[in-house]
Amino acid sequence: MSNLLPIQKKLRTYGSKERALHSMRFFKTGPGQYGEGDQFLGATVPELWNLTRTEGLTLSEKEITRLIQSPIHEDRLLGLMSLVLKYQKTKLLEEKSKIVAQYLKNKKGINNWDLVDLSCYKLLGDYCLLTNDSSFLKKLSDSTHHWDKRIAMVSTLAFIRVNKLDLTFEFAKKFLDEEEDLMHKAAGWMLREAGKRDLERLRKFIAVYGKKMPRTMLRYSIEKMTLTERKKILKETKP
């Protein structure tokens, strides 16, 4: 405990062995699974958010980097929450740019779906939207690493929320041949969100690519449609 940051010491008072074991199963930490070797304290997300709100803004860049590079899942989550909070609090684009650079520099520690989903669209997605430059996302979408690709896909949520849907459909098309189920879920989720803004465009996408879409991606994308329409699409696109 002596080498821990004060905020890490507080975090460890929240841990629960029972929750830690549950998290290890839930986040697939077994041999060969996507979260292999990840370590958990068993702290809850509300506890982490509370700690972030009270102390996250006081953390230095070095301390946040140390958290994101930790082998402990909750440390990394706490570091990312603090980074998001700092990004949202500053109005200066220069400061936002530094925060995003820190995020990208430490993305090796953003290595599970909750870590990606909590942070990417609030930081990288928002920054790309503000600067009208999606090159970071397109570069990540071309990566061979599935966490990079999930960051790219989920970051389009920032664009969806202001009715800019092109990037979402572009990436969904690119990821049609993905083998990783987590990418099927991410792409389907973003297509569903895009469909809330433009249902007809989602219908057209499915009409063209529905038979090529992994079934998980397809099912996620049509969740908000009527039961009748969902059944019809699933029948028509059945391999």
What does this structure look like?
With 239 residues, the protein is mainly α. It has two domains: 1-110, no CATH class; 134-239, ARM repeat domains (Serine Threonine Protein Phosphatase 5, Tetratricopeptide repeat), CATH 1.25.40.290. The protein contains 15 helices and no strands. It is globular. The mean pLDDT is 95.
Please name the defining characteristics of this protein.
2 domains, Serine Threonine Protein Phosphatase 5, Tetratricopeptide repeat, 239 residues, globular, mainly alpha
Layout of helices and strands:
Elements: H1 6-11, H2 17-26, H3 45-55, H4 61-68, H5 73-89, H6 93-105, H7 113-131, H8 135-141, H9 146-155, H10 157-160, H11 166-174, H12 181-197, H13 199-209, H14 215-221, H15 227-236
Instruction: Tell me the series of helices and strands, N- to C-terminal.
Output: HHHHHHHHHHHHHHH
Task: Give a quick account of the main beta sheet: strands, pairing sense, barrel closure.
Answer: none
Computed over alpha carbons, the radius of gyration is: 19 Å
> Level of helix content?
55-70%
Tally of alpha and pi helices: 15
Low-confidence stretches: none
Give the beta-strand count. Answer: 0
Q: How much strand content do the residues show?
A: under 5%
Mean pLDDT: 95
Envelope shape: globular
Q: How far is it from the N-terminal to the C-terminal residue, by CA?
A: 55 Å
Structural class: mainly alpha
Write down the domain tally: 2
